[in-house]
Amino acid sequence: MDPLREFHPQALRIAEGLRARGEKIAVADGATGGLIMASLLTVPGALNFFVGGGVVYSFRARDVLWAHPREAYKGIRGPCKEYATLQARGIRDNLQADWGLAESGSVGGSTHPAGAPSGLSVVAIAGPDGFETHTVLETESDDRIENMYAFTRNALNFLETSLG
Q1: Separation of first and last alpha carbons in the chain
Q2: Nearest to 26 by CA among 110, 90, 117
Q3: pLDDT-based confidence at residue 114 (cuts at 50, 70, 90)
Q4: Given 12, 38, 102, 163, which is the most exposed site by the fewest CB atoms within 10 A?
């Protein structure tokens, strides 16, 4: 099945929840390569709940999208709770959304710059009133494409659950 068709019903539910609350989200896709944002954008009228985001696949993209000083990343390497949470806060704040979701992972097929194992994904969500949460997925697979789908599925499931 086409992953966007698979993820669309869930994106509809997420959109309905955000719209009902009058809230918007911004997304920093990492190892998912834009699939989280693409899934949310399958919903007609996405401007009512989706501000924007970016695929954060390099230090340059990170620096432009979040505008954190380099010192903010001191001691943080690779996919981890701290890195994903900085991403989620940054994308939320810089795009002036209510919610920020960030995924950081190692999809496999090549060596991760920080040495993270293939199949590792960390998702963080930063919301209103100091709400922050994260989840970790480990597929233990080196299948790049399957991991991208699994990471996206995990992020959307976690977002839907976190929004309540």
Answers
A1: 27
A2: 90
A3: confident
A4: 12
The dihedral built from the CA positions of residue 90, 94, 96 and 102, taken in this order, carries a sign that is: negative
Helix (H/G/I), strand (E/B), else coil: 157? helix
Structure tokens at 124: 């963080």
Q: Which of 47, 57, 62, 53 is nearest to 95 (CA)?
A: 53
**What would the pLDDT profile of 119-164 be if each residue is shown by its tens digit?**
999 999 999 999 999 999 999 999 999 999 999 999 999 999 999 8
For 59-65, which contacts have Cβ atoms below 8 Å and span 24 or more sequence positions?
62/87, 65/28, 65/90, 65/91, 65/94
Q: Return d(Cα 151, Cα 164) in angstroms, integer.
A: 20
DSSP element (H, E) containing 129: none
Q: How many residues are present in the chain? A: 164
CA dist., res. 39 & res. 7, Å (int): 6
Strand-pair partners of 50:
25
Place of tokens 């690779």: 78
Provide the β-strand partners of residue 122.
104, 136
DSSP three-state, residue 23? coil
Structure tokens at 155: 């992020």
